[in-house]
UniProtKB/TrEMBL annotation:
Belongs to the TACO1 family. Keywords: Cytoplasm, DNA-binding, Transcription, Transcription regulation. The keyword Transcription regulation applies. This is Probable transcriptional regulatory protein NZD89_09740. It comes from Alicyclobacillus fastidiosus. PANTHER family: TRANSCRIPTIONAL REGULATORY PROTEIN YEBC-RELATED, TRANSLATIONAL ACTIVATOR OF CYTOCHROME C OXIDASE 1. The keyword Cytoplasm applies. It is found in: Cytoplasm. Residues 5-75 form the TACO1/YebC-like N-terminal domain.
Amino acid sequence: MSGHSKWHNIQRRKGKQDAVRGQLFTKLSRDVYLAAKEGGGNPDTNFRLKVAIERAKQSNLPADNIARTIAKATGSLEGVTYEEIQYEGYAPHGVAVLIDIVTDNRNRTAADVRHIFKKRGGNLAESGAVAWMFTRTGQISVERARVADAETFMLEVIEAGADDVEESDDAFLITTSVEAFRSVRTAIESMGVEYEDAELTYVPSTTVEVAGEAADDVFNLIEALEAHDDVQTVYYNAVTPDDEEGA
């Protein structure tokens, strides 16, 4: 997911998923792999795995693929070993970029990412250079049409620990702390409401507005990073005038 406008992020990610289905399956499988490797292969006791499996199923990743991935992660089947890395850098025009990586070859990925930055006017930075500009946050989106009583719904999620509930004409966006993410998600499920998406993400504490050619420079870099197979998620603090109007 990308880290500028919250509403824009949801629609932009959905469109990108439709456009790059094969690459999406690779990224979802790696997410399942790491979750199972970290906490075991039982989604009833491994919340991260439960979320990863649900997101994979929502994007129609075949059940056999999910099962094989879990088996590889837990040692039941031989397979490639992956590791998680986070890179930091700057896009053109001072935009901060945070990148979640899952790779089986750290050196190859580092060289690839460095090349992407250099070719498009950005640069990799040392660990800690931009991470302080982002806060780890839970976000859950729910279509408004799925909620019968909006006032009751908002009160319930706030009581469950949500920090904020934002409304648009067609959706609710619930923001939580990392600690309250699971309890809020459970509260939504207990109301019989299906959510559109639920994830832990990074939200920028400060933003940089870009427009015109500057925006093209920034998003050319962002999209090149997102197209790399080892890049799971790109977060950034750029906003456009349209994002500001729609946020």
